[in-house]
Amino acid sequence: MSKRDYYEVLSVERTVTEVELKKSFRRLAMKYHPDRCPDDPHAQEKFKEAKEAYEVLSDAQKRALYDQYGHAAFEGGMGGRGGGAGFGDMGDIFGDIFGDIFGGGRSRQPRRGADLRYIMELDLEEAVFGIERKIEIPSQVNCHHCNGSGSADGKTVQCKTCHGHGRVRMQNGIFSIQQACPHCGGSGQAIEKPCKHCHGEGRLEETRTLSVKIPAGVDNGDRIRLTGQGEAGPSGTPAGDLYVEVRVREHAIFQREGNDLYCEVPIRFSQAALGAELPVPTLEGEVPITIPPETQTGQTFRLRGRGVKSVRSGRSGDLICRVAVETPVRLTRQQRELLEQLEASFNEGKAEEHMPRAHNWFDGVKQFWSKVTS
Length: 374
What we know:
The protein is of the alpha+beta class. It has five domains: 6-102, DnaJ domain (Helix Hairpins), CATH 1.10.287.110; 107-152 and 198-250, HSP40/DNAj peptide-binding domain, CATH 2.60.260; 157-190, no CATH class; 255-326, Urease metallochaperone UreE, N-terminal domain (HSP40/DNAj peptide-binding domain, Sandwich); 333-373, no CATH class. Helix content is 28%, strand content 26%. A four-stranded mixed beta sheet has the order 10-11-15-14. The protein has a three-stranded mixed beta sheet with strand order 1-9-8. The longest helix is centred in the C-terminal third of the chain and has 18 residues, at 356-373.
């Protein structure tokens, strides 16, 4: 049985471009692939025919021979690899066409070194005002003896494993997986005389000391990227980046929420009842705060602009002081007598006038029990 014209098989004109040729074969491959058409006995032959046609027409040299001599160009060993493309290497051509879809393309992206992460613990004051600190980073650096090339004489030759292509194929049935050459790492070049200091790696282990400037206003979890300060790439390729991640220690006085600071201010109940002026701490020193008479525990007072200056917007947050009324302890005899007199004075009059929250609470309790017992 005579073979069909390859252009006819792929349903293209003789003037077809490489892009149109690939598109046509892709359509036929997806349509007739045996795994997609297990119940069609003719699918395998149609796929084989389309693959054979594409292998010839996609190769400029083979296409020129085919245009001049037809199928006779590949009979008796003409055409480079001998005969038409057999079904046994179907995965190879299938991988070429769909490599860009499944990530097995031929492009060789330049490799780079690994990124590194460093956890830097800071006090709240250091995070708020910024700091410059030296850190030690153990990492791989470019070999000083071969300038990172890995070659003792600075020369490379074509890799014998991938023949300079940088990629090799792993065949599995009708499919093939294309991956970076394990010998040259995808560069297509190999080293004949490895550097004796780095053994051809182009990198050595070394602890570096870096000075890191932490900007004012950073918060817990913020990261600072130092470009090119990660591990050196293999064979002189670019280095990775270093990410310094900030961890802020708990503070004895302040809690931070965004750009606001919170602190608790303990006061005596006499100060809460009569009012007072108290000094409260801020990150820049003490400032006075006025406590009005009859202040209740939990009441907050806001000091504008006394919080943290944002590292992004430059705006400063606030300091929120939360009052906590403390019950006095270790009373003297005189203090106890005075408190007893105060308590007695409450019992003589209407206590609810002095304790509105307690009065409302007791009213609520009475209503609750009346509903339960009714």
